[in-house]
């Protein structure tokens, strides 16, 4: 099983779009068992594959979210009959992902992540790694994809600690391209501080308009950067307004009639598998 964090320090670069659609393509086209872990407090990946009504029902039924991984403190609860009591935190063995479709599971995100204290010294940043280690035995996933928030935070650190690889989606614009060097410094610091063996699974250009100067400039920057050289994927994700529109209704790229876009995604996934050492 390989675990991969999808990371960028900037929002609006189609990071979540890449995460859920790579997962869907792996499950649908490559018959691989995939889990997406939504560790972004804005839970955008969850909203891409779960309707608002179904998500509300999920929470109302007290089914599990990523909060259950990190919330390791007993909580006081008050019942009408039993009165005051204490609710013990769940063990990682008790946390069950949500099935989205065949081969594709999700551990939903939740806004409640914001209320958790993730200051250093508590060990909470290691709990996602512990959970993923447990998954290797129980669910036999081929790939775990972690969708991270677009800011340096304890959540991003936790994702990197739990990962074998990280993949960087980059929108071809000057700020996004140069911002990946800042991302590299953050990843380097986390890697050194926690003694990680973390490899880069590459850089994917997203929301790409092939014949523009900014697209060509972004390619040139990455291909000539001392660190990122050789890490850019041969295929990029094309700009399509239909993708953003369909996400609001839980539509994914393979559900569209856009042959060119689906082919682009398929090529990205084949290279992704090669870069993380899995056969396509």
Outline the structure in words.
Helices cover 40% and strands 16% of the residues. By secondary structure, the protein is an alpha/beta fold. It has a single domain (2-275), classed as P-loop containing nucleotide triphosphate hydrolases (Rossmann fold, 3-Layer(aba) Sandwich). A seven-stranded mixed β-sheet has the order 5-6-2-7-1-8-9, sandwiched between helices. Strands 3-4 form a two-stranded antiparallel sheet. Helix 7 links the parallel strand 8 and strand 9 (199-205). Helix 1 crosses helix 10 (259-275). The longest helix is centred in the middle third of the chain and has 21 residues, at 174-194. It is globular, with a radius of gyration of 19 Å.
Strand order of the largest sheet: 5-6-2-7-1-8-9
Alpha-beta classification: alpha/beta
Compute the gyration radius: what is it? Answer: 19 Å
Summarize the helix and strand pattern as letters.
Answer: EHEHHHEEEEHEHEHEHHH
Poorly predicted runs are none
CATH architecture level-2 label: 3-Layer(aba) Sandwich
Approximately what portion of the residues adopt beta-strand conformation?
Answer: 15-25%
Distance between the termini: 14 Å
* Largest beta-sheet characterization: 7 strands, mixed
């Amino acid at each position: 099983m390989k675990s991969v964090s999808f990371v960028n320090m900037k929002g609006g670069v189609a990071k979540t779009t890449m995460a859920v659609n790579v997962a869907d393509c792996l499950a649908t086209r490559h018959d691989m068992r995939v889990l997406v872990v939504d560790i972004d407090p804005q839970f955008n990946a969850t909203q891409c594959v779960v309707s608002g009504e179904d998500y509300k029902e999920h929470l109302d039924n007290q089914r599990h979210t990523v909060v259950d991984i990190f919330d390791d403190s007993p909580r006081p609860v008050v019942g009408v009959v039993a009165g005051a009591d204490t609710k013990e935190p769940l063990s990682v063995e008790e946390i069950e992902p949500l099935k989205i479709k065949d081969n594709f599971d999700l551990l939903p995100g939740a806004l409640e992540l914001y209320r958790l204290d993730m200051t250093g010294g508590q060990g909470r940043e290691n709990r996602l790694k512990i959970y993923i280690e447990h998954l290797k035995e129980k669910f036999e996933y081929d790939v775990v994809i972690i969708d991270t928030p677009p800011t340096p935070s304890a959540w991003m650190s936790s994702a990197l600690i739990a990962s074998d690889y990280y993949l960087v989606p980059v929108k071809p614009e000057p700020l996004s391209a140069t911002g990946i060097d800042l991302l590299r410094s953050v990843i380097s610091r986390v890697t050194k501080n926690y003694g990680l063996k973390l490899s880069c699974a590459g850089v994917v250009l997203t929301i790409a308009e092939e014949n523009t100067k900014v697209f060509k400039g972004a390619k040139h920057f990455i291909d000539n950067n001392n660190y990122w050289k050789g890490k850019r994927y041969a295929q990029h994700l094309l700009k399509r307004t239909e993708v953003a529109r369909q996400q609001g209704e839980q539509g994914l790229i393979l559900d569209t009639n856009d042959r060119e876009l689906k082919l682009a995604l398929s090529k990205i996934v084949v290279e992704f598998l090669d870069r993380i050492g899995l056969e396509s």
